[in-house]
Write a structure and sequence with these properties.
alpha/beta, 6-stranded parallel sheet, 368 residues, 4-stranded parallel sheet
């Protein structure tokens, strides 16, 4: 179960396909945004999920929990796999109420409520609730980084015995191939993510403006990502006004990120969202691109500072601009970091390894 069908297709499709190939009967529960035929084509079922990611109305949230409880009682699944914090919260409660015993909870990032330096009251309430309910059923929790694991362990939700760290959703190393720099009229600095404030969009555009006078003829900033309904989403009007189509370009949602990375030279991702491990960064590493990102939870796990990229303080366009300038001016450093980034992706982020680890978890439940 995931928030929306598009996230399933971009982050969990291969795991579901591998489970089908192993003989599992797989159903995807996700909000239908027009992709259910693609899901059916994988040989899995689909159930529409009545969820609004941006809505925090407690009455609607409880209706979601009741929907899941009734669904689990009807379907009687042997294994339930929840992805994402809201899904984990209501799905775990529903699993207990429905008498379902085997649950996989995948923490794929905790978002702004859990930003470094503060955990909001709502966030604490979620953690305390999870501690209560996770003790009542057989749960394995998957984390993408150690920071999130440490937080959950500090609240008594997980232990070493019922949790595992799998670094990210994996990247297809045969699709995202290492590609040496292509000769372009300008150096391309690319950002790929949803257009959210916490993803660092404002900071990236400010950094670009800092560098404009010196580098306008040498570099181009490329922003790839769609508008998001989140209250902190960047508006189309702001992006249209801020991007001139030459020095700063906004391409909107794209499905050809592998091709765009091949023609890019640097990946910039100044997110402070409290990521799991951003898929955009492991794709960048696989493509052999040096990365400039924030020294924040999740992002720092995708980069070896000074080896595969550079880490900068969050919310600092000045520091971001300075680090980008280092890579803009140093061809040899870019090339060396790109090669090391590819090696890191091969060692740490292989999709094949991620699929295998998930199937092992499913198998442990099936055997019991």
């Amino acid at each position: 179960m995931v928030n929306v069908d598009s996230f399933f297709l971009s982050h969990r499709r291969e795991i579901a396909s591998a489970a089908v190939a192993q003989g599992y009967d797989v159903t995807v529960i996700a909000r239908d945004t027009g992709h259910k035929n693609k899901i059916f084509s994988l040989g899995v079922k689909h159930i529409d999920l009545p969820i609004d990611r941006a809505d925090m109305n407690i009455r609607k949230e409880w209706q979601l929990c009741k929907f899941l409880t009734n669904l689990y009682r009807k379907e009687k699944p042997d294994i339930i796999h929840h992805v994402g914090l809201k899904i984990i919260l209501w799905g775990t409660i529903a699993s207990v109420r429905a008498g379902c015993r085997n649950v996989v909870n995948a923490v794929s990032g905790l978002g702004i409520m859990f930003s470094e330096g503060r955990v909001s009251l709502i966030a604490k309430s979620i953690l305390i609730t999870l501690r209560l309910y996770c003790r009542k059923i057989n749960i394995i929790t998957i984390f993408q980084n150690k920071d999130d694991y440490d937080l959950f362990r500090s609240y008594g939700i997980v232990s070493d015995e019922n949790s595992v760290i799998i670094p990210g959703s994996g990247v297809d190393l045969d699709k995202y191939l290492y590609s040496p720099e292509q000769k372009e009229d300008k150096l391309h600095i690319i950002f790929t993510a949803r257009m959210l404030e916490e993803k660092g969009v404002y900071d990236l555009i400010k950094a670009a403006e800092i560098l404009r006078e010196k580098y306008a003829r040498k570099i181009r900033f490329i922003l790839c990502g769609g508008i998001d309904p989140n209250p902190k989403g960047i508006t189309k009007e702001y992006l249209t006004d801020s991007c001139d189509g030459d020095y700063i370009c906004w391409l909107g949602h794209r499905t050809d990120i592998d091709r765009l990375l091949r023609s890019s030279h640097i990946v910039a991702f100044p997110s402070y969202y409290r990521e799991g491990i951003p898929k955009s960064l492991i794709e960048a590493a696989a493509a052999g691109k040096p990365i400039v990102t924030c020294d924040s939870v999740g992002c720092r796990d995708a980069v070896v500072h000074g080896v595969t990229g550079l880490l900068v303080p969050a919310k600092s366009p000045e520091a971001l601009a300075k680090s980008l300038e280092i890579l803009i001016d140093d061809d040899k450093k870019r090339h060396a970091m790109g090669k090391e980034a590819r090696l890191l992706a091969e060692q740490k982020f292989s999709l094949t390894a991620v699929i295998e680890e998930h199937l092992n978890i499913y198998s442990s439940f099936a055997e019991s």
